[in-house]
Design goal:
The chain is α/β, with parallel strands linked by helices. The protein has 14 helices and 14 strands. The strands form three sheets. Strands 1, 2, 3, 4, 5, 6, 7, 8 and 11 form a nine-stranded mixed sheet that branches. Strands 12-13-14 form a three-stranded mixed sheet. Helix 13 runs antiparallel to helix 14.
Length: 423
Amino acid sequence: MTTTDFLTRRRSMLVQATGLLAGAAGAAIVAACGGSEAPASKPAEPTKAAGAAPTTAAAKPAEPTKAPAAAEPTKAPAAAPASGGAGLITGPFDGEAKALTGAGATFPAALYSKWFNDYNKVTQVQVNYQSIGSGGGIKAISDQTADFGATDSPMTDAQLKDAKGGDILHIPMALGAVVATYNIPGLEGTKLKLSGDVLAAIFLGTITKWNDPKIAADNAGVKLPAEDIVSVHRSDGSGTSFVFTDYLSAVSAEWKSKVGASTTVNWPGGIGGKGNEGVAGEVKQNPFSIGYVELIYAIQNKLGVASVKNKAGNWVEPTLEGVTAAAAAASGKVAPDLRVSIVEQEGEKTYPISTFTWILAYKTMADAPKAIALTRLLWWATHDGQKLTGDLGYAPLPAEIVAKGEAMIKSIQGGGKPAFPGK
């Protein structure tokens, strides 16, 4: 599939919004998590990444577009089979809770919206999910104000130790790409090339004009405007920020030493937006701006998406194949607890700003009905749900990761007994 076909197909899928959380449950989670503010702990240390201090939003928030939503899928790339686990969840189960609450990452919000809507049709379990950012998701699960959390940034050892409910599991759900997205009047439809060094310099504030020689050198034939660059970053605790700053730290020694990688950093400049939707909204409303989001948000807002130079020196676009290649290249580096960074991996076609996205669940849950409901949901998502990933621009999990996730799901206890009933 060509990149043009891929993007056209994704745009056609974004037809109607499915509510992510309604009523009192959402208000309770947001209140308990302090809105979408990040936890005070240090950045995740999956296999690398340095810490940095929290940021403060610098400008009025844009009128955000709502989290992109799912529609009925057409043909999606299938997930690799793993131990025949698909098709086990076929209907309601006696003794399981009929409602679950979750909170966290905006990065997978479109996928989770589709998943939870479809899962409700199968099991009649209502999953209420609040996309408040990975920082909020980590806080929600740590404080036990939600049944599960969601993050694109693995929890640190310190965060895991401080969790009120005991051991927390990181269960991978899917793979995705973070993209550099821009709004340059007159260059609509133009595919810019932006290397990691250039992106780092833009967000450090050392490249300030769109026609800077370093940008021009990689974009021969493009008439770049002599306009100031407006950089846009996340103002909340964000797994997307972690992935982007982790990548910048991997390609720029200056970025690593001055800013580092975290869910929240001290941004040298620019304006802040809340959530992926807030960053996309700020880029859309501010001419000559650039930000970073999960690809689906750039597509819905009809913003430019940059090609990025990978570790092999090739210019690559954010395709499913490139994200899958990044996961494959990192397969030997995945720790037993499945916390890992897959940015800047080896490979000719690897997309360098790729990531897993995880659901966070307690290994021991006091509420047996909720434990049963959650394990069944996680099993369905990591098996049956994988066929829905491609049409929403996410990549399915590799078979070996699905198998490791199965073991984690089966290890969850509810009321002192194994929670997953096997169907």
